[in-house]
Amino acid sequence: MTFRIHTVSSITRTKPRIEKLEQIYSAVQSGQLPPALAGLRDSVQVIKSAGDKIDYEADLAKALADAGLVNECLPEVLSTKQDFFKKAAPFITKEIVVATNNSSLLPSQMTPDVSYPENFLAMHFANMIWQENLCEIMPSMLTAPGTTEKAKDYALKMGMCPIVMNKEHAGYLLNSLLIPFLNVA
């Protein structure tokens, strides 16, 4: 797995965060965290070895080389995401599934900026994925059915529970349920 980071200083900020997560997971193993996180105990060895499999790369071409899935996780600002897809376009091949990770923007808002709209969709991961391992998958009308299946397979391989949405909907499923709940509470 390669994290494409915008600047070298971003790499300097990201590595300690990943290391902190490793410390948290180690604390789970030793019983120092709340019971709600106890399910992580079984995954500690996998989690510890995961950090060794992460590469940090500032060069976009190198970060995308040999990728099977490119999952963009920039802030939910349409112009920021569009800019990324335009910059990534020369390095995206027809075999790569390209996903945006967001909970409010629709994939169709970004399809004009991606190399292969048929290989593009949204994959939104719920907060606290170690506890709520949901992944909302939202294709656009241009997304090929095979791309949706590949995204679902990727999610399953990551230990996620994929929810495939049949049509685009702002707010996706989780936020469509959460926001009214928060407004009433």
From TrEMBL:
3-hydroxyacyl-CoA dehydrogenase NAD binding domain residues are: 46-167
Q: Name one GO biological process term.
A: fatty acid metabolic process
Q: Which InterPro entries match?
A: 3-OHacyl-CoA_DH_NAD-bd, NAD(P)-bd_dom_sf
Q: Which GO terms describe its molecular function?
A: NAD+ binding; oxidoreductase activity
Q: Name one Pfam family in it.
A: 3HCDH_N
What does the similarity note say? Answer: Belongs to the 3-hydroxyacyl-CoA dehydrogenase family.
| Entry protein name | 3-hydroxyacyl-CoA dehydrogenase NAD binding domain-containing protein
